[in-house]
Amino acid sequence: MAGADERSVRKQVDGAPSFYSGVAAVHQGTAQKSGRLVAARITPLRLEAFEQLPKHARRCVYWEVDPSTLGADDHLSDPEFEKEAWLSMVMLEWGSCAQIAMHCRDSEAGISEVAPSSAELDDEPCLGYAFYAPPRAVPRARLFPSGPVSADAVLLTSLGVEPGNDSHGLSRSLIASVVGDLVRRGVRALEAFGHTGYVGELADPRAVPQELAPIIEVLGDCSVEQCMLDADLLQDAGFVVVTHHRYFPRLRLELEQGLGWKADVEAALERLLESAQLQQPVGAGAGPCV
Questions:
Q1: Cβ 67 vs Cβ 143: under 8 Å
Q2: Rounded distance, CA 288 to CA 290, Å?
Q3: pTM, two decimal places
């Protein structure tokens, strides 16, 4: 993680997980690219930047499509179209539903009020992403025996990062960016279905209980291990198991306490920015390069 000399705020608020002691849109660490360290900038995903996502993220519809609705077909002719259409629908009806981490150019240091345009991102590699949405917009969520998702919660569905020396730190920063977005929107909790280390027992179709068959069924190059979140990662990020299951527990992160840490952390960041004579507003959607 970042050292004391980097632009970060490490202020822990009583009652809030230490994981969220920084501002959501700021990645506190670095990622590895071509043998050198690079900084990441996390912003809400704009639909015109869809092509910047990695191939699997564009084609994965594990959460967005219920396979039972396809009838005799066992595949989608254009999964990228389906994913983009889903994003468009959720963004139109609900608002931002994804965060994307991009390689940050040195000239982008500081805080911006808006996410970069697709033209600005054309040459920048995607380092990671996170998707989230109201459970009503996630067909697969209804199939889990550890459900349903609580009525006051938003569902964190998937997260991916490029391999690197701080991929775990970038995963944490992406989740923190999701938390920051939801706190500003007044959401009370973030929930997720995780997979445990026992999920390997379901590799043999004959060992899959009937109630879990709809969860294991995938489309294209998707898989449970790749398209679901690791339960250990979620617990490391402060999530708590609310419904236990050997393979697919449901976990929850309370966000009401986030209102407190958000105020304190942003006040500290404001003082830091003033000392550096930066005039941009605090709490903007895109964070500085670090």
A1: no
A2: 6
A3: 0.76
Q: What average pLDDT does the chain have?
A: 77
Q: Does the domain at residues 18-271 carry the CATH identifier 3.30.1380.20? A: no
Residue type, 19: F
38 forms beta bridges with: 31
User: Where are the chain's structural domains?
Assistant: 18-271
Q: Give the three-state DSSP class for 181.
A: helix
CB 234 within 8 A of CB 251: yes
User: Average pLDDT for residues 171-181, to the nearest whole number?
Assistant: 94
In 211-268, beta strands by DSSP E: 229-230, 240-243, 250-254
Q: Could you give the CA distance from residue 287 to residue 115 in angstroms, rounded to a whole number?
A: 9
Selection from 198, 225, 185 nearest residue 97 by Cα: 185
* Nearest of 206, 254, 252 to residue 229 by alpha carbon: 252
Question: What φ, ψ does residue 206 adopt, rounded to 5°?
Answer: -70, -15
Residue at token pair 């009806």: 93
Task: Tell me the pLDDT tens digit for each residue of 75-96.
Answer: 678 999 999 999 999 999 999 9
Question: What whole-number distance in Å separates Cα of residue 260 and Cα of residue 46?
Answer: 29
Q: How far apart are CA 132 and CA 89, in angstroms?
A: 13
CA dihedral 169, 122, 43, 147 (to 10 degrees): -80
